[in-house]
């Protein structure tokens, strides 16, 4: 048996080094430099090319290199191949810190003060406090649920919207299309942490923004395909959305000609809200490899039908 690393991230050597520390007797190879494709039963993947799994006739497990699986072409993966994702405390913690930073940056008017500083203008502004602020989190899975719970612990009013009802302390749970409008109708911030599925693709669109109060702030840390770009620009122009903090995009890197770059109300980060921590995540990969070899249930296996 051997492990193939199919990674479009520039971190393959780092992954290989960490895996070899725990599995020194196992051959770990970086695609396409594979000695024997027939021997590969386990593949670690991040944004592979379409049909990648077809190269490995005995492949049993595809391990995502991150929390999502949408980049793995899940709709085409054969049903006999098990697909798993990373669930790591560092991913959750980093995401919470990023979200909190964006929310506080907006609440306390730091962008406006940066503009005023360039004009040498002393102009105090009204700000909101945590207890006065409502945040709606879209997606209450491992990461979104953690973000919602920790925001509630800080004193924010928190709504959560998900596919099924959730019981998270301090978080009001909403479900279904009808529940979506109710979840956002009195919110100040919307944080999208949804998985990308056929049902959620393009969910941040003109209709959705019409549900939001004037001046709502959007944070998209889910996937770029959740957002209809032109609809966001329109919503900002109308004042429906006061600003947006975007970490993920339809195309990455974001093309230089994209209108987001010219919009002063949009803050861009290059998909860094929550990066996989190889040092901690490698333990899940190693555990799953050993479970596969022993014929045991895998950790964090996902439903290809649901997409999460």
UniProtKB/TrEMBL annotation:
It holds the Pfam family 2-Hacid_dh_C. Gene3D superfamilies: NAD(P)-binding Rossmann-like Domain (3.40.50.720). Residues 101-273 form the D-isomer specific 2-hydroxyacid dehydrogenase NAD-binding domain. The keyword Zinc does not apply. InterPro entries: D-isomer_DH_CS, D-isomer_DH_NAD-bd, NAD(P)-bd_dom_sf. Keywords: NAD, Oxidoreductase, Pyruvate. GO terms for molecular function: NAD binding; oxidoreductase activity, acting on the CH-OH group of donors, NAD or NADP as acceptor. This is Glyoxylate/hydroxypyruvate reductase A. It comes from Sphingobacterium puteale.
